[in-house]
């Protein structure tokens, strides 16, 4: 890929700068890169902050490739981290496979794969962002099943002239030729079950375990890679059910080797996520932490002797330390800083107190999830400190104090606060 | 199945998720709480109101509300609503709920005046015509009533205040007011919203495939709307007959109140279901309808008498079967209860 030595040095410098930049500056860079018509190697400046971007979840333009790979997103890894044969997808395979899918959808007119549908997807996503969730849902529901069929078609024609361009582009990215077919087939399986994976377990939808069973039967027809890829995604999306499958008795579960590969990929995803955790407790922090802790629980329940044990223990410690730190920082921001800047004018004061209450709710949700990692006394001490601050705050009425204590520490602490009158 | 509405109890707007669909009833001077199984399984928990904190760890708002309810002598939808408003005014269910409770109190005061004026101007009981000046007309009507009953205008005025207070507290509005206006009364507006909700659920079912819980909620809503309209029309006919209304209020006030409060009893618990649905968006509607199916209010045989000659409605209201335990994706998160309390506080803020 034609980048001169000077160009590479400049790119390295920019990447270093982006890696050290604050969140706001990173978002500015993302907007600049996203605004480019042809991104080419410019995309590489985002490499050091990809994990952070995953946590920050900025709205990005809803491009064809981005939409196509959304169901497999947790398994996408940087080229350097990708290991051939594993259930992960190398990031540099994305443009190759997206072009190949477009090419098949644009060329073949069969009942299941039509050019009209491609035009419909394009029209739905034009000028839309990833934050347009309804559009993502509609366009995804249209694209993913079609793309799954297109990838099956591609897998069946890889050795023909029809797919020569795909093979050539794959090689150009430095990807091993032998990897193309298993990756194409696995992705086809993932996309075939993308919608069911989303809906499984919701009221009115099929139970998770039955959809997972169905997915694994389908994966078996697509090869071992597809099975471990599907298992990894289910572990990440629905850790409890995924974990049960992994821990099933021999004979009823997929082969141990595939389960280990899936667990390894899920753990890698978790390590990447934990490496990019924000410093504060955001609105969705509790939900994210719940998923992470449930995944750790599911992985820890695997048969003894698994090579992942040490990584799980290390990750548990890392997540707990981060959680305590994040909780402490946000608690200070919400309570101490919040009280110090409490306006005196009624309307502004009400708005500030409501914001404090909302922050307290997020903190409580986060703490309840974080306690599953351990560290109970640490969290209790932090909450006690905040309660003590609230009780001493003269500008709060008794009801205001009790309510904030309830949101932060639960109703029993609040009742003591209310009955004690302070 | 309890035989009467009083035995069934009145829905209490608690904010603790575990108390969803809870009802309070007063039997032999003791307040009991009846709580549906939170997972949707058959059967209910029944315990003394004073044991609430032994049953669960309720929110501070719920502790205060339960304390207040223990002091209420007559448990009716109106008295529970008034008690819940007083509890919300404290602020323990959030600032929005407190503001909403204050606004609802003010709206009821205004509605009482509206009903008073409408009753007096709908035609003086003596049969004489009104003057062009409404205030003068009202004074004339009061004097006519007083002279007919051998009472004083002041006494009649007090009596009228109580009657109008009862009409408004029962969710009945100004006779002939436009549906959807604040004057139409809470019951009429709730029925309109429930009819909309039923249509929305059916449209949602059409787009998302069949789901037992949502179908059941839609069917029950259709039946309660039909039943509610009939019972409300009966109550409104009583109010429209001003002569009979004043006369019955003087002679048999308890009997009159029993008939005027039927719509309120019949619709008790449905506002919560309506708001559960309204607050759920997109995919959350499946969970909301599953939750609503668990807390659909029971329909006691007493209600059958109110709907005389409408067996279809009765069958639809009584023929409900348990929908079975609710499914949840990956079980409930430990923190989920925090979000549900916040959602329930929003429901409190939107409740009338």
Helix/strand layout:
The complex is a heterodimer of chains A (422) and B (352).
Chain A lengths: L4 H16 L2 H13 L14 H7 L7 H6 L6 E2 L11 E2 L3 H14 L7 H11 L7 H24 L7 H9 L7 H13 L1 H6 L8 H15 L1 H14 L1 H8 L9 H20 L9 H16 L8 H32 L5 H25 L5 H17 L5 H12 L1 H10 L2
Parallel strand pairs in A: 1-2
Chain B lengths: L4 H4 L1 E2 L11 E5 L2 E7 L7 E5 L3 H4 L4 H10 L7 H13 L5 H27 L12 H16 L3 H17 L16 H23 L3 H29 L1 H10 L1 H8 L1 H6 L2 H10 L4 H11 L7 H5 L4 H8 L17 H15 L2
Antiparallel strand pairs in B: 1-2, 2-3, 3-4
Largest sheet of chain A: 2 strands, parallel
Task: Report low-confidence residues of chain A grouped into runs of 5 or more.
Answer: none
Distance between the termini of chain B: 28 Å
Number of strands of chain B: 4
Main sheet specs of chain B? 4 strands, antiparallel
Interface with most residues: A-B, 40 and 33 residues
Span between N and C termini of chain A? 69 Å
The residue fraction in helices of chain A comes out at 55-70%
- What gyration radius of chain A follows from the Cα positions, in whole Å? 25 Å
- Proportion of residues in β-strands of chain B: 5-15%
**What is the domain tally of chain A?**
3
Tell me the Rg of chain B in angstroms: 21 Å
Summed up, the domain count of chain B is: 1
- Treating each run of at least 4 consecutive H or I residues as one helix, how many helices of chain A? 20
> Mean pLDDT of chain A, rounded to whole units?
85
Identify the overall geometry of chain A: globular
Task: Explain this structure.
The complex is a heterodimer of chains A (422) and B (352). Chain A has 422 residues and is mostly helical. Chain A folds into three domains: 1-58, no CATH class; 65-272, no CATH class; 277-422. Chain A is built from 20 helices and two strands. Chain A has helices at 5-20, 23-35, 50-56, 64-69, 94-107, 115-125, 133-156, 164-172, 180-192, 194-199, 208-222, 224-237, 239-246, 256-275, 285-300, 309-340, 346-370, 376-392, 398-409, 411-420; strands spanning 76-77, 89-90. Chain A has a two-stranded parallel ribbon. In chain A, helix 5 (94-107) crosses helix 7. The longest helix of chain A is centred in the C-terminal third of the chain and has 32 residues, at 309-340. Chain B is mostly helical and 352 residues long. Chain B has one domain. Helix content of chain B is 61%, strand content 5%. Chain B is built from 17 helices and four strands. Chain B has helices at residues 5-8, 52-55, 60-69, 77-89, 95-121, 134-149, 153-169, 186-208, 212-240, 242-251, 253-260, 262-267, 270-279, 284-294, 302-306, 311-318, 336-350; strands at 10-11, 23-27, 30-36, 44-48. Chain B has a four-stranded antiparallel sheet. In chain B, strand 3 and strand 4 form a beta hairpin. In chain B, helix 5 packs across helix 7. Chain B is globular and about 65 Å long.
């Amino acid at each position: 890929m034609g980048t001169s030595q000077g160009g590479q040095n400049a790119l390295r410098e920019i990447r270093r700068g982006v890696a050290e930049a604050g969140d706001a500056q990173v978002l500015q860079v993302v907007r600049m890169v996203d605004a480019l018509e042809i991104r080419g190697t410019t995309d590489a400046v985002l490499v050091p902050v990809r994990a952070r971007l995953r946590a920050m979840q900025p709205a990005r333009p809803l491009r064809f490739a981005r939409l196509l790979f959304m169901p497999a997103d947790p398994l996408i890894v940087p080229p350097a981290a990708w290991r051939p044969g594993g259930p992960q997808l190398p990031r540099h395979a994305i443009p190759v496979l997206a072009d190949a899918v477009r090419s098949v959808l644009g060329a073949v007119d069969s009942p299941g794969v039509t050019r009209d549908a491609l035009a419909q997807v394009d029209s739905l996503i034009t000028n839309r962002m990833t934050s347009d969730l309804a559009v993502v849902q509609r366009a995804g529901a249209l694209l993913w099943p079609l793309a799954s069929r297109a990838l099956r078609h591609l897998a069946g024609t890889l050795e023909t002239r029809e797919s020569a361009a795909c093979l050539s582009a794959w090689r150009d990215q430095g990807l091993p030729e032998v990897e193309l077919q298993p990756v194409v087939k696995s992705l086809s399986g993932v996309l075939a079950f993308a919608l069911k994976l989303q809906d499984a377990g919701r009221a009115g939808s099929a139970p998770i375990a039955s959809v997972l069973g169905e997915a694994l039967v389908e994966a078996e027809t697509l090869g071992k890679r597809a099975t471990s890829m599907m298992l990894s995604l289910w572990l990440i999306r629905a850790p409890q059910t995924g974990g049960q499958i992994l821990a099933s008795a021999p004979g009823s579960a997929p082969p141990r080797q595939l389960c280990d590969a899936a667990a390894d990929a899920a753990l890698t995803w978790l390590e990447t996520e934990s490496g990019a955790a924000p410093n504060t407790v955001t609105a969705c922090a509790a939900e994210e932490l719940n998923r992470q802790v449930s995944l750790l629980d599911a992985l820890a329940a695997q048969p003894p002797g698994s090579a992942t044990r040490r990584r799980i223990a290390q990750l548990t410690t890392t997540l707990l330390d981060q959680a305590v730190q994040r909780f402490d920082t946000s608690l200070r921001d919400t309570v101490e800083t919040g009280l110090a800047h409490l306006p005196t004018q009624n309307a502004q004061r009400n708005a500030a107190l409501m914001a404090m209450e909302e922050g307290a709710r997020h903190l409580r949700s986060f703490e309840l999830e974080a306690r599953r990692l351990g560290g109970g006394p640490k969290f209790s001490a932090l909450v006690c400190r905040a309660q003590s601050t609230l009780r001493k705050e003269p500008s709060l009425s008794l009801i205001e104090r009790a309510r904030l204590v309830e949101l932060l520490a639960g109703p029993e602490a609040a009742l003591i606060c209310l009955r004690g009158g302070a | 199945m309890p035989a009467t509405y009083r035995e069934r109890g009145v829905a209490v707007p608690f904010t603790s998720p575990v108390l969803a669909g809870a009802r309070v009833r007063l039997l032999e001077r003791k307040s009991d709480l009846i709580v549906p199984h939170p997972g949707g399984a058959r059967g209910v928990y029944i315990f003394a109101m004073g044991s609430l904190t032994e049953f669960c760890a309720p929110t501070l708002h719920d502790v205060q509300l339960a304390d207040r309810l223990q002091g209420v002598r007559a448990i009716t939808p109106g008295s529970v609503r008034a008690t819940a408003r007083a509890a919300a005014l404290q602020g323990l269910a959030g600032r929005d709920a407190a503001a909403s409770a204050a606004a609802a109190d003010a709206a009821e005061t205004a509605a009482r005046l509206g009903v008073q004026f409408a009753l007096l101007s709908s035609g003086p009981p003596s049969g004489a015509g009104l003057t062009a000046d409404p205030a003068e007309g009202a004074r004339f009507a009061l004097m006519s009533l007083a002279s007919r009953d051998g009472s004083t205008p002041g006494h009649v005025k007090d009596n009228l205040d109580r009657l109008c207070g009862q009409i408004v507290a029962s969710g009945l509005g100004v006779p002939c007011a436009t549906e959807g206006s604040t004057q139409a009364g809470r019951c009429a507006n709730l029925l309109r919203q429930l009819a909309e909700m039923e249509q929305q659920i059916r449209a949602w079912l059409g787009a998302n495939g069949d789901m037992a819980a949502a179908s059941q909620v839609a069917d029950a809503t259709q039946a309660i709307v039909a039943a509610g309209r009939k019972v409300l029309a009966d109550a409104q006919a009583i109010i429209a007959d001003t002569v009979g209304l004043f006369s019955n209020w003087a002679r048999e006030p308890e009997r009159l109140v029993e008939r005027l409060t039927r719509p309120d009893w019949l619709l008790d618990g449905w506002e919560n279901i309506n708001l559960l649905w309204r607050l759920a968006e997109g995919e959350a509607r499946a969970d909301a309808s599953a939750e609503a199916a668990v807390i659909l209010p029971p329909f006691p045989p007493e209600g059958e008498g109110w709907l005389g000659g409408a067996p279809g409605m009765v069958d639809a209201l009584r023929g409900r079967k348990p929908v079975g335990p609710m499914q949840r994706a990956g079980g409930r998160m430990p923190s989920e209860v925090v979000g549900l309390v916040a959602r329930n506080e929003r429901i409190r803020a939107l409740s009338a």
